[in-house]
Design brief:
This protein has about 110 residues and is an all-alpha fold. It is built from five helices and no strands.
Length: about 110
Amino acid sequence: MSDKDEAFESRDDDKGKPGARMPGKGGGGGGQRQNFSRRKMCRFCADEGTTIDYKNVAMLKHFITERGKLVPRRISGNCARHQRSLALSVRRARMIALVPFTVTGK
């Protein structure tokens, strides 16, 4: 037997051990953790009194990053209907210069 064969045999011995890496198991020996987080609720569906308006710049700023991009709905928690309405309001606010298109450096 050569040195390479001995190396492969030692790897075969490790397969049953708890800390051994197994293909498709996510690596490591510990149990897999499942992260359960609360589903984000659309703030416009939850509170019927809140409306999306392009003139309400303070509300629109919550949905725009510091670079001037729209926050996606998987992060903001908006439903599809209100995310489309929000995007339309941001575009309108940009056209009349209430919200900047992009934010440049200092």
